[in-house]
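[Discussion] Sanity-checking designs against the backbone

I'm trying to build intuition for which residues belong where. Below is a structure token string of 268 positions. I'd appreciate it if someone posts a full sequence so I can compare it with mine line by line.
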């Protein structure tokens, strides 16, 4: 019921930490993985690593913001494996210029950085869905999983562009889920996960002090997380696999928090 064995899974942003974790999980579960990233070097390292687990892996350099690049990738995948069963839209993330320092105001932010972070996260989800989703529409089957965020649910200081973009991802997930089901049948599902707080390269500086102690921001996060800890990146893998499996055959348009209770807790 939870199997994704032999399913062809496209994972954008596979050269990154989250993309790599999901790719390793999917390869271990027997999926045929297409690892995509805009950067050649980390992609080559990732593919080499994945092939030690299972040889059914290909690496494609592609830009999630370039429709023609994505169309070429889709054609290559279908030519090799005949279908595209799963799309995990992981390409995205925040950028330093769009993250406000504690003493900065909204009006100190550079609009160019706002444009970059909203384009990367919103269109970096929409464009692959547009291209690979069309293959699924022709097949009449497929599963798309997007990456939203806790920042999409509630106002969160310091990350205005990222928050707005992830809120758009959540809304787009619901819209596309309805569009696919009504026009192409119940074989195509679109869902998202909303990770809570995980310490990674992009947010380490705002969560962990140079001496290894927690920042004030971290203390606030943990005070609002009933489980009282940060998540481990591997704790996202099972939920994503579930959403791509037959076990979730009647689930579409869902944005699933994986957050240790952060979103559920009022703080009181």
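Best answer:
Here's mine. Compare freely.
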């Amino acid at each position: 019921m939870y199997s994704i064995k032999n399913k062809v899974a496209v994972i954008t942003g596979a050269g990154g930490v989250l993309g790599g974790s999901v790719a390793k999980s999917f390869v271990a579960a027997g999926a045929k993985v297409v690892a995509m990233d805009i950067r050649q070097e980390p992609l080559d390292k990732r593919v080499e690593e994945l092939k030690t687990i299972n040889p059914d892996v290909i690496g494609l350099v592609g830009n999630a913001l370039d429709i023609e690049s994505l169309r070429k990738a889709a054609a290559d995948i279908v030519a090799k494996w005949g279908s595209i069963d799963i799309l995990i839209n992981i390409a995205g993330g925040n950028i330093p210029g769009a993250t406000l320092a504690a003493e900065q105001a909204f009006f100190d932010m550079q609009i160019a950085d706002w444009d970059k972070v909203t384009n990367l996260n919103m269109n970096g989800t929409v464009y692959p869905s547009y291209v690979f989703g069309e293959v699924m529409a022709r097949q009449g089957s497929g599963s798309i999983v997007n990456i939203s965020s806790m920042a999409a649910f509630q106002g969160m200081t310091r990350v205005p562009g990222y928050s707005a973009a992830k809120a758009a991802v959540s809304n787009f997930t619901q819209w596309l889920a309805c569009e696919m089901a009504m026009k192409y049948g119940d074989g195509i599902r679109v869902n998202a996960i909303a990770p809570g707080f995980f310490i990674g390269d992009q947010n380490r500086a705002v969560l962990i002090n140079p001496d290894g102690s927690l920042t004030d921001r971290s203390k606030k996060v943990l005070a609002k997380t009933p489980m009282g800890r940060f998540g481990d990146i591997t704790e996202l893998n099972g939920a994503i696999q579930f959403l791509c499996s037959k076990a979730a055959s009647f689930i579409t348009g869902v944005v699933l928090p994986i957050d240790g209770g952060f979103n559920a807790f009022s703080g009181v």
